[in-house]
Amino acid sequence: MLDSKHCVPCRGGIPPLEEEQAQSLLKQVPKWALIDNATKIRRRFAFDNFAESLAFVNKVGQIAEDEGHHPDITFGWGYAEVIIYSHKIGGLHENDFILAHAIDKL
Description:
The structure is a single chain. The chain is α+β, with helices and mostly antiparallel strands. The protein has a domain at 39-89: Gyrase A, domain 2, CATH 3.30.1360.20. Helix content is 35%, strand content 20%. It has three helices and four strands, in the order αββαββα. A four-stranded antiparallel β-sheet has the order 1-2-4-3. β3 (72-76) and β4 (79-84) form a beta hairpin. The protein is globular.
């Protein structure tokens, strides 16, 4: 289902997904985890060195720009961690799972 979708602009003023809705969408991106009372999703990626981590982060950055939806990313030698949520609504939206699915395809 998420394969054919792209992020749509979130203008705020809408409620974030309830935890049950988020759990349902999480089934399509099973390597991600709900965090912060089901208001965000997170995934940690492992790499062999810093260069691979940086290359991955740059690819995620390009996807984020293409989708107009920007995650929080931390990275260093051998790892990258991506946290996604919709800032304007202070929680999760379908867009977050669409972005996670796009990242998973890397």
